[in-house]
């Protein structure tokens, strides 16, 4: 039995990159929702843009997860 170390390394690298990317994207969505809450407390505007940004971040996370499930099931 031979282990293809190059393939194992590339799978590890891609998995690490995608995992970190999803965490950062989800964190940006949470930060956008937090910004909306702070703007609402201060009575200012800008909440609609923050909600739109959060929705885009969460939709991208959901799309990445759905694509990953598609790759596993298919």
Automatic annotation (TrEMBL):
Keyword terms: Membrane, Transmembrane, Transmembrane helix
Membrane-spanning intervals of the chain: 6-33, 45-69
Protein name, per record: Secreted protein
Native species: Streptomyces thermogriseus
Lineage, highest ranks first: Bacteria, Bacillati, Actinomycetota, Actinomycetes, Kitasatosporales
């Amino acid at each position: 039995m031979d282990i293809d170390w190059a393939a194992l390394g590339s799978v590890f690298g891609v998995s690490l990159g995608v995992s970190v990317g999803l965490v950062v994207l989800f964190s940006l969505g949470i930060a956008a929702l937090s910004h909306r809450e702070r703007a609402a407390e201060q009575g200012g505007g800008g909440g609609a843009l923050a909600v739109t940004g959060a929705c885009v971040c969460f939709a991208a996370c959901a799309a990445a997860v759905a694509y990953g499930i598609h790759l596993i099931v298919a």
